[in-house]
Amino acid sequence: MNSPPIQLQSLIDLQEGPFVLIDADYRIVAANRAYCESYGQGPADIVGRHCHEVSHHSPLPCHLHGEDCPHQRVFATGQPCTVLHTHYDQDNRPEHVRLQGHPIRGANGELYLGEVMTRLASPQELDCDTMRMIGQAPAFLECVDNLTRLAASDAPILLYGESGVGKELAAEFVHKHSDRSHGPFVAVNCAAIAESVFESELFGHERGAFTGCVGRKRGLFELAHGGILFLDEVGDMPLSMQPKLLRVLETGEFRRVGGIETLHADVRILSATNRDLLEMVQAGRFREDLYYRLAGIDVTLPPLRHRRQDIPALAEALLERLAAARGKRYRLSREALAKLETHDYPGNIRELRNVLQKAVALNSNGLIGAEQIQFDNAPEAAFAAPLPATADDAVPPATLAGIEAEHIRELLARHGGHRRTVADILGISERTLYRKLQRYGLR
Q: Could you list the residue range(s) of the whole structural domain that residue 436 is in?
């Protein structure tokens, strides 16, 4: 193996971010300090090794594992390229990176791959209060890369995606990677606010502004000053509120309900919907000018069926959280995992969580079998599967139907009987929820 010419090493050392030079045999011939620090090793421990051994902890090149390999593309075409990968640090923790491969010629004409590595996110950075953005599927990595780029701007972002894909998690990710990360992140579900109090929720109110109003209240715009306001299910915003929101977005100024003082808030708006807003505009149910204010940049989040390879990792993370709440450990049998991987998940990650919640409720020994993985479209008989007998024979065995009915009853009570909100939480359609309410005699 030849050492790189001094000129090439100087070029590498000038790079602030991780940069590595790789020859035709996948061997690292030079690496700058930032690259070595990324893997907790010195140059002497990295130079001479195969790139896939260092970054992937694998004896085989990444293209043999199904990844898009910058080495192959640069040496085959002589053209630069950009790919998204999952690398592993010195503690074998995955991190998402963007790789830019450049063809570099040595003094004698030999070709090298110059690889610039931009770190997108580690699992710790993707961690949120309720769930993590987890995955290695190409559709997921592309989405993370896109969100990372957009976080650097201050433009409004409209997140499109089916119910349950994790739109609020994506919004939190943008907040954490933006210049507003030290400011507040305030989220509101537009579908869960009654039209009569919508203005008060957004802008606040003064004492005596309406019957029963006993004090001043700060609105969400005030609370989000210097940060991000996330409008989830923005397609459900009442038409009467839309011109008022538009005015605030255009001027940054507003008044509390019942107030005369003009207030100002510096807020970046992120919004999300699972509806076709342009279709709603054409139908007269959403203002066109507001749409273009919100959709400065639009991003579509991939559904779970387009990233099936992420289901095992997502299921494991969800089970960890369920186990922590119950003080127990759970794991999936091979048959249970295979059953999870074949489902299409119209409710996406929220539906996966709901399925695992039911499985945990049915489980007694910590090992979840395929028979405990029940989907909403399963035969009616599946909902009558009894739990294992308890020591107290006087207590009748619980059924999945009973567990589900009680869960729905609690959600309805918690969310004021709002069926749309409860359906979204369960990862099912409102029509399916209605059928369940009839089946279980709930109101």
A: 305-440
